Amino acid sequence: MEIPNIYFPHLGLSFHLSAEAFSVFGITVYWYGIILTAGIILGTLLAVYIAKKERINPEIITDFVLYDILFALLGARIYFVAFKWDYYKENLGEIFNIRQGGIAIYGAIIASILVAIIYTRYKKIKFFQFADIATYGLILGQAIGRYGNFVNKEAFGGYTNNPLAMAILKSEAKPPLSDEVLNHIVRFETFGTAEYIQVHPTFFYESTWNFILLILLLFYRKHKKCNGEIFCLYLIGYGIGRFWIEGLRTDQLLLHLTGIPVSQIVAISSIILGIIGIIMCRKSFIKQ
After folding, report:
1. pLDDT (tens digit, 9 = 90+) per residue, 231-259?
2. SS3 sequence of the chain
């Protein structure tokens, strides 16, 4: 019997997943890239659908995505490298080795917002109206993209034995592995002497949180009071979820000399900005 490399002991679910999907002319294509691409495509289709509902030219969305993909990837890599600089300053060649992993969603989001500001000015359209529409595609893309972490056996949390606990074959789990995780190595009688780490499936937590947030914002769309409100609600909602989930993860990017997870700082900042944006929105609505 093939030993699974991922097992949910309390759910009775087992998987044997490979990060590699297939090869083309000797070049390996990874599931991570396929899943991220699927997230981008489906997110774009959703944003296009919303644009049509808002009577906005959908080409504004598709053109933006084509411009943004490269900058989002670049932003995600810069963010990751910046907060792993102690490693990369000694391994400068690895900065460009993105096929080995090392991107951060917050870097992609920040870069995309900057691109959107420039893009909307160039197109002479309202940034916040555009941001509300694009937000739906962004959330869906994030929710789908997290399953790339699942396939890669990475971005998990610390040890847990809760009903959703995920066991990963120790030899395949991507580092870093915390002392807490290593002190709770588990074996399952069904799989002989194979050693597993048992952790929080934070990929699932975040993906589920994003799907719920997306559904709520879809229901709220017809009730929004001003342009930018959906975007601000996203900043608040995703920020709350990310702050909690980031605290569980073992692969946190830390702010230099502080030991504070950078993504928690960004999450708090986004919550504050989102609240300020909602207050300003409501004030402008009342004045109308």
Report:
1. 999 999 999 999 999 999 999 888 877 78
2. CCCCCEEECCCCEEECCCCEEEEECCEEEEHHHHHHHHHHHHHHHHHHHHHHHCCCCCHHHHHHHHHHHHHHHHHHHHHHHHCCHHHHCCCHHHHHCHHHCCCCHHHHHHHHHHHHHHHHHHHCCCHHHHHHHHHHHHHHHHHHHCHHHHHHCCCCECECCCCCCEEEEHHHCCCCCCHHHHCCCECCHHHCCCCEEEECCHHHHHHHHHHHHHHHHHHHHHHCCCCCHHHHHHHHHHHHHHHHHHCCECCCCECCCCCCEHHHHHHHHHHHHHHHHHHHHHHHHHHC
